Amino acid sequence: MSADQRIAELLDRWLASVELHTKYLELDAEQYARVQDWPKHQRPTKWVVELARARLLELKRHLDERQAKGDASFAESLELMAFLTTLLGSEHIDRFIPLATGKAPAAGPPAEPRKTTGDTTTKQKLAVRPRPAAASTQGSRAKAAPAAAKSAPARPKSSDKAIALVISDAVRFLSWGREWPQLASSISRLADRPAEPEVLAILRAHRADIEARARRPPD
Question: pLDDT tens-digit profile of 77-101?
Fold first, then answer.
């Protein structure tokens, strides 16, 4: 199939879709949602549908004129632009006119009822589970606090020299193309550098300065 035929068929599908959307403008939101299995989108307004229809008819007229002159390059250019727009230029957006087919969505299986035991669901049982007494809870927290304090030793403060070394290494690695998640492990393997957790803490604290220096062109 030639590019002329492919583009002509594509424009015909789009025109058929826009004609359906013109009819759907009379439906309320609930009726519109049931027409077919739509992708996530903002419902197109009347002026958007009319604008799309006018531009499609104009493009179809241009295509017919070029075909009559034997110019196949026009359709090929349209096809190439459509491909490049999808590949390079488009970002995910909700405001578009989805392809309307006129086919209602297939009915799905009925929702499975929630399993119950007697007259009380599992969620309800959890809701009425008795809570421990306040005094007992406070006692448990008091006992847990000293244990937590012992198990979490204070992190030593990094020296100015260590901070300067890590920042310099990070700037150099980023300028070489290294990815940010790889910096901590790469730097910690160098001689006279802090352990990886300390390197990671320095990187997090000075990330903005590191990235700014890495982007700065060399003098």
Answer: 988 888 777 677 555 556 677 788 8
Query: Of 70, 89, 108, at which residue does a domain stop?
Result: 89
Q: How confident is the model over 45-62, as pLDDT tens digits?
A: 999 999 999 999 999 999
- Residue 126 counted as domain residue: no
What is the pTM (predicted TM-score) of this model?
0.45
CB 169 within 8 A of CB 193: yes
The Cα–Cα gap between 24 and 14 comes to 15
Return the structure tokens found at 179.
Answer: 């990815």
Looking at the domain assignment, is residue 179 inside a domain? yes
Is 38 within 8 Å of 98 (Cβ atoms)? yes
Q: Among 40, 73, 89, where does a domain finish?
A: 89
Residue 182: give the domain boundaries: 160-215
SS3 at position 145: helix
Measured in Å, how far apart are the chain's first and last C-alpha atoms? Answer: 57
Strand bridging mode 116-117 / 120-121: antiparallel
